[in-house]
Amino acid sequence: MQHSPLLDDLRTVIRTCPIIDNHAHNLLRPTELGTYAFETITTEAHGEALKDTFKSLSHIRAARQLRELYDCDAAASWDEIVTKRAQTLKDDSNGLIKRCLEGTHCILMDDGLDSDTVHEYDWHDQFTTSKTKRIVRIETVAQDLMEVLTSGEQSSWHEDNYESRDDDINRIWTQFKEAFLADIEAAISDPEVVGFKSVICYRTGLDIRPTNAETIESIRASFKEWVVSCRRGEYRLEHKGFNDALVELLLRSLSDSGKAKPVQFHTGLGDADIDLLLSNPAHLQPLIERYPTVPFVLLHSSYPYTREAGYLATVFKNVYLDIGEVFPMLSRDGQLSIVRQALELVPTSKLLWSTDGHWFPETYWLANKQFREVLEEVLVDYVHKEDLSASQAIDFVRDVMFNNSNDLYALGETLQIDTATTSSKAMSRGSADGRQLLENFLQREPAVEFVCIQWLDYMATTRTRILPIAEFSRLVEKDAGIGISRGNTGTLQNDAVTPACTPVGQMYVRPDLSTLRRTHAQHPLPSATVHAFFHDGPGQILPECPRGLLQRLLQWAKDEHDITFLVGFEIEVTFLRRVSGPSATFEPWTTNQAWSSLTDEQYGTSLPLLAEIVKALLGIGIAVQQFHTESGQGQYEFVLAPLPALEAVDTLLQARQVVQQLAASHGLRATLHPTPLHPPEREGAFFVAGVLAHLDAVCAFTLPEAASYGRVRDDAWMGGTWVAWGSQNRETPLRRVERGRWEVRCLDGLANMYLAVAALLGAGLLGLREGSGAAAGAGVKDCLQNPSQLTPEQREELGITRRLPPDIHTSLAALEQDGALAEVLGARLVGDYVAMKRAEQTMLGDMGEEERRVWLLERY
Predict the structure, then answer these.
(1) Which of the four, 86, 95, 698, 709, has the lowest number of CB atoms within 10 Å?
(2) Residue 205: which of 256, 247, 160, 155 has the closest Cα?
(3) Is 535 helix (H, G, I), strand (E, B) or coil?
(4) Are 698 and 681 members of one domain?
């Protein structure tokens, strides 16, 4: 599979997505750290069986990862790891906890596992982004209540006379039931409580039998057994019948309350006091069917019954599968198997993540680390096999790690993650690939002594750093970039500062070695050019990188819709002579010409230069399909061959440089200005791709200057003023040439083509996401006539209801208001672009008309 920026986005999201841990437990207080053996972090074994855990794959893997956590030597023994851990806790216990809980947004905490040795649930808030919420364990509630109810009667109540005191059993049952239901109702109303839990799986099994919990008759024997145990000070609740009734009381209360908070059930994996056969969640099916409005969460992957749990989560709307605890309790292969089994059948909207972290902060760290590793392996494999697109896999990660729990438990949290911000690892080649590409290039072009690293800023100004080949080779060897201030992206063509400019922060211009191209033979330096991405320090592409944005959107189109784009550019350029004098200006190079003409003046004056340009382009590998005169004075067009979209823009920029540099060698200025002379005869710039629905906002990128709107007029073969499309219609902004081939006419050479094409693609992808193509998305029909010549009624029938923006200010306002397009392109990029364009327009507005025209001609 080719390099995919969205696949890099997937990896980044897996590694960085904040986690809502939907089931975990309290950490031990510092004075209680020795209460439990640390090696239990990877096993449910206890006692003599615990001695063998050191030979398990799960323990060996965890030990290796803990060496990383504590910065131990790679060969450190378990005893050395434990010693280093003890020292770390002594030096900075909170620092260790903070590191272990890094990436945890909030914890839903079952605080009923232990109360004497652990911190309160809300103590953990200091280490998470959002506050910890409670999961109420009903068996603990029951045990605490019974301890209160029976503690004052020891002198009058003896085990040998229970059989004759049914009235006392009835009284205690009544008191217990009323108190228990009151506690449950209080928890249902308590905003700190987001769910309940039962460990009946541990106690009497999941084969919960229907009971009439309103009376004691059906459970008298089991309740009496428990009371006997309680009088001996043994409050553990493991009496079949009564345990079942307790669950029924909870479910009935939730069902009747109208506030059906989820109920978590321990299923599957547990320590030795569990009946493994009765831990199969399939036993819960009758109970699930009886309470369809109560959400059931099957905890701990139900291992080894993951498939059974997956079936229940698939066929019952109110059942969810938690894929926790097997991390870090199982080997890597076991974990991979669990995740794959869960995905065999279960919709991704029904899967939840939890660490089952307890007692030791490392249990959180290991679980999250191993889950992210395994999830990345599974999902990347699915993307490679095209079972999922990268975008679908990204949505899956966000849902399982955050959104599903957020919705199920009604937490009201906001997922703060932006693929464009945390996204793609370098789309430029890695150091090994880069070295090979450079080596191959220099074998073909041994005379190259310099490399021009280039990037296009928001104002469509090409910025350049020139490096001797030895220094460039060192840069490639280190897989590094040139450090510049992030504020450099916010300056205008003359380096004037705008509101988008900040002095804080560093970025790196990193070359994409796949774009290396030798400069033309007449260039004063024996050199090559290479295009670049903007990166942060760790090597991720920044959201404000125009080239990176286009690459990301192209990959989105491929992954989501299996669409690829060929883009063909026609360079429409006007050659001007500088006129010396008090106020320097320009005049056309040739005047005796018309569209596709070849006059004597052209033959003797322009043809030699045009031929020189085309030969130079062909000589450096840029294909030219044809070239010809346009109707404007001094105006000519070079038609480049269509290429994949990103390569097409890269090639366009390199070709423009050749045109302008060779023109300059003849004392001419080759400008891309849409209206360089007065009055313009006709203007045209031709591109492929796009849709109409967001065209008002797109024009802020495609028609980026006030001068651009001089060509937005009717009856001039310039694309007209109406938002419309038509087959072979040159009076519409979008001309359909043939199936799959479009010409965009509302675009000129002053645009940053990375941003312009990205905006067109982004608008088109939004249309596809909404289930329609460009024309249908805009509600406009094929217009086979000049829209300006139609009556209002005829335009209405074709869905032609609005005009293109009349000026750059209207386009910028439309871009600001187009939230959907801003989301696709990146809110920061759009905000900075709008701020810079407004600052630029203010600067240009302060100039006189002729000064402004010359200023732009000098730069474009």
Answers:
(1) 95
(2) 247
(3) strand
(4) no
Contact 616, 658 (CB under 8 A): yes
pLDDT digits (tens, 9 = 90+) for 268-306: 877 777 888 999 999 999 999 999 999 999 999 999 999
Q: Do 543 and 420 touch, CB atoms closer than 8 A?
A: yes
Number of Cβ atoms within 10 Å of the Cβ of 425: 18
Report DSSP letters for 51-81, one per residue: GGGGGSHHHHHHHHHHHHHHT--TT--HHHH
Q: DSSP assignment, residue 807?
A: S
Looking at the fold, whether 262 and 185 belong to one and the same domain comes out as yes
Angular region, 667: left φ>0, alpha ψ -120 to 50, beta rest: left
Structural domains counted in the chain: 4
The verdict on residue 288 lying in a domain is yes
Cα–Cα distance between 762 and 755 in angstroms, integer? 10
Do residues 314 and 222 share a domain? yes
Q: Quick count: other Cβ atoms within 10 Å of Cβ 439?
A: 11
Residue ranges in the chain whose pLDDT is less than 70 = 1-6, 152-166, 212-215, 417-433, 485-488, 490-498, 500-505, 537-539, 581-584, 594, 672, 674-692, 717-719, 739-740, 768-780, 860
Residue 667, domain CATH? 3.30.590.10
How many Å apart are CA 521 and CA 527, to the nearest integer? 9
What span, in angstroms and rounded, lies between the C-alpha atoms of 838 and 699?
14
Nearest to 302 by CA among 263, 335, 269: 269
The boundaries of the domain holding residue 506 are 431-551
Residue 109, both tokens: 């905490």
Burial 563-588 (b: 16+ CB within 10 A, else e): eebebbbbbbbbbbbeeeeeeebbeb
CB atoms within 10 A of CB 612: 17
Neighbouring residues of 407: CB distance < 8 A, sequence distance ≥ 6: none
| Distance of alpha carbon 712 from alpha carbon 683, whole angstroms | 9
Q: What is the pTM of this model?
A: 0.57
Per the document, the length of the chain is 860
Q: What is the pLDDT of residues 242-256, one digit of tens each?
A: 889 899 999 999 999
